[in-house]
Predict the structure.
Amino acid sequence: METEPMENMKIAILVGSLRKESYNLKIANALIKLMSGKLIPEIVPIGQLQLYNQDFEDNLPTEWIDFRKKIKEFDALLFITPEYNRSMPAVLKNAIDVGSRPLANNVWNEKPGAIISVTPGRLGAFGANHHLRQTFMAVNIPTMPQPEVYIGGAKNLFDSNNELVDKSIIELLEKFLAAYESWIAKNIVK
């Protein structure tokens, strides 16, 4: 039986690159423009989070409190990541760690998620994508299995106004978003 997509699903978008001209951020912004009115996306900043240290749990940094509270507001997650040394960037792993503690209050728990990996290289950040999938298992993010999206050659996908102009990538992202809406509707916990 087909599940009807839900209305007004709040989507947290976490971008694993802090660079001002990040290709991952450009893809996130392109995705937001392609999203249907059923999805309410918001890019959630992660660069302000101190490195996870369990000692801080006794005196929580304000940034951790705000981040954990913010993530709890969302119905679903979308991670857009580059690849650093065949894995995810430290800033993204740190955000996951900050949100996952204490375990009884894991803010990621049961929120349906998906991953898009983006790189100027040819492999589409395959390693980062799969390391992130492994991490999702540990924090209980049900992860959309298909379509997998690995975007390589990112520097050639945008015009001088940072608009996504590659028609094949636009079609891929539209297909991804249709599957993502369906995935969320089937896996959302209200």
Observations:
- The radius of gyration is 16 Å.
- The mean pLDDT is 93.
